[in-house]
Amino acid sequence: MRYWIEAGQVTGRGASEKGVPMRVQVRVNGVEHEDEVEPRVLLVHYLREVVGLTGTNVGCDTSSCGACTVLLDGESVKSCTLLAAQADGHEVTTIEGLASPDGTLHPMQAAFREHHGLQCGYCTPGMVMAAVSLLAEHPSPTEAEVREGLEGNLCRCTGYHNIVKAVLAAAEAAPAPVGR
Amino acid sequence: MTTTESRGFVGTPVRRREDPALLSGEARFVDDLVVSGALHFALVRSPVAHARIRSVDTTAAASMPGVVAVFTGAELAGDWLGPIPCAWPVTADMKNPPHYPLAVDEVCYAGDGVAVVVATSDALARDAAGSVVVDYEELPAVVDLEDASSDRALVHAALGTNRAYTWELIPDPDAVERAFAEAAHVVSERYIQQRLIPSAMEPRGVLAVPEPFGGNLTLYASTQTPHIVRVMVAATLGMPESKLRVVAPAVGGGFGSKIDVYAEDLLAVALARRLRRPVRWREERSENTQATIHGRGQVQHIELAADAEGRVQAVRVRLLADMGAYLQLVTPGVPLLGAFLYHGVYDIPAYSFSCTAVFTTTTPTDAYRGAGRPEATYAIERAMDALAAKTGIDPAELRRRNYIRAEQFPYASAAGLVFDSGNYHAGLDEALSVVRYDELRAEQADRRARGDRVQLGIGLSSYVEMCGLAPSRVLASLNYGAGGWEAATVRILPTGKVQVVTGSSPHGQGHETAWSQIVADELGVPMEDVEVLHGDTAVSPHGLDTYGSRSLSVGGTAVWLAGQRVLDKARAIAAHQLEAAEDDLEYTSGAFSVRGSPERSLPIQAIAFEAFTAHNLPDGMEANLEASISWDPPNFTFPSGTHVAVVEVDTETGAVRIRTYVAVDDCGNQINPLIVAGQVHGGVAQGVAQALFEEAVYDEAGNLLTSTLADYLVPSAADLPAYTLSSTVTPSPTNPLGVKGVGEAGTIASTPAVMNAVVDALRPRGVTDIVMPASPWRVWEALEASSGETDKEVGA
Known about the structure:
heterodimer, A: Ubiquitin-like (UB roll), B: alpha+beta, seven-stranded mixed β-sheet, five-stranded mixed β-sheet, 23% strand
């Protein structure tokens, strides 16, 4: 999980006056987007309201819940801790970009379904993205490492039991990743 | 056309059909719905707990960019035919102060709405809301329950008291007195049920979309109760109910907090009607913590009178219950949902319960997962452990001695209920065996003897709940404002596909999957041929929605019964066309055939097509294969179980770690064990959260100090253990599916299990209670406070 201080080093091109719309170019799920946004617009609101991808949810206003987790250049970030401007020139993957184009679920999504790792589903997109990032970093985590690794993502329905089970199962099933 | 074997879906862990949409981001929650031209509104909320409103100046806000309209409470006062509804006047003389979507003269809690700003975006509406100037003349805040009950300062001066009502259930006062006079052992305990913030991961949201002509309006709401919201919003706004459609799209959890009819629901409709534009509102988390109901909030006094063998002869309970500033939809009824269960799973002949409800200058309380029953179970289960300590009887043995025995069912309780079925001894035996109770006690003795820094605690909790919120006549006797039935329709379409319409409104429980399992088995059709429709009053006009673990036992049963009526119709059509008597037909594998002549057969799909063409139907038969029913059960259902928490308590830091958690639940027959387990996991987590982490904290001035998820500790995966589940199955005789309900069980059982474990670990150190949540600080404090006795008792 990358936090905002580090992400803040991702500088947007062309600083903007307060309130004056600025141009951002972001590759979202493989598609190039170029938009004018207010400087104060958060990445999550940009994704939801400008790009129109509403799978990424907002669950709090203190960067505590992780419902808005997406991948920025392959690494999980809470998209409420970034301005859209900070994603300028970068690549974002949201939950909509995870499954294959033919609709086949990503192994992590499939594991969540197989192990009943979701109930209401509101935290799920963020939880799945965080889990994908976790396994990219730690391909064979212990149960304790999964629990620690998902600490920034809150779920109110599942008690986490089946989420942890799903992530461990996905790790078990996945071939050891090359690179990264 | 398919004819299939009955697949035996019921009872198997079918993977949920809800999941692909939720996992791919395609599910639509209220805030995901795109409606062009929609305006956004934001509320100006009181930053103080209690104040007279001297003036509200909206001029600056009204001229800000994007602002379309600003309204004060006074300006909208004419829009309401009545106040925000409370549907449960528990006593005839209950005090119910008027509560409007926006306050006019006085605010009574921090978060109370004062004005509303409508603008072209959410951000602009919130910007402008910050520029509305309100002049408050502060009044005294009242936060503490016992302080409030003294009437030192009044929340609503016009009422002359802070006491909303006193409700008693004392069937035989003399028997109670006698039992206490004759008791060999008496325990008298005082427990605090701290306030909790339900914290569904999706905050609330509403979107009101007026139709272009004719005054019809659709309200999309993040609610558990679209049907109730429709009735109540129409009544409160004086609009014809027929012109209001309420849709609950994907709903991101509720846990009771989305049962209510809220100010923002009413404001959305009122503003959309005034402005003739779609309007929407999304709740921020810091609003959710203040403007959405809280749960729990009780001071409990419980006394047990026991004979020399530890058999409890009487239970006497006095509660103070926190209503908050106003009575929301079922606020006053929450303590009553526990009022009948303070004897727990025990055969206790004498019963006394009394509850006084008080107003405080805080966010209103209402039903939160378990609603009244977690509080009751906590009190009796903690008190049973206190009695075990007093008598020197092992807590498991004491429970065993006092349980209602399997042969006593149906059991008429001293509180006036008839428990449908149960086998409490079996649940305890299973739990003790899974957790290896004797070994744990040996380890505990060893650690105590060694004076180990980390002490082991073993906490038991046996529970029973009344679920289903059912027989309408019983609810009437409690002055509840609605019935307890549920509605369902099953229709087989001309192509043989099946539509199931349910009045129950899921928000994570998996109804679409479970209801499909029930109907696919019943009709002998493939599960994928069954579609379940819900959450839209235009599609399912009748319903009483989802709360109180009622969906399956009431709503699922209604679905099954509607399926039976469809089969009755189909049987009549088949008999007519096969030229056989109905009694000579048998229904197997989705087809009617003549007994003894299996070649004379009609599959259900063919019958559906015959019903559609109506070319050859029996006289008087309607041209459809459809049936609608509403089901009003004869009794509540009574799920039960025993949970065991095993904790390690660091006596130097106060840190508590749950080492093992075993849950043995009996929810009757299980339709989908995967979903049952998920409900238990989540329920246990919420109960553990009450025991160890969560508390809505107000300062003396009535400011909520835990208004964000950074301050209010919803536990993460790292804070919680894995759970070991088992079950016993005692079918309920009160519905044909034999089901009982499981949505609240984990929450009810786990809080006392964990707290009994923590206290059990520290009892030799003189600790007899810790006020929840048992944070390291509280545990450490309790150890410090009792350290005087420590030296005498360690190693005892």
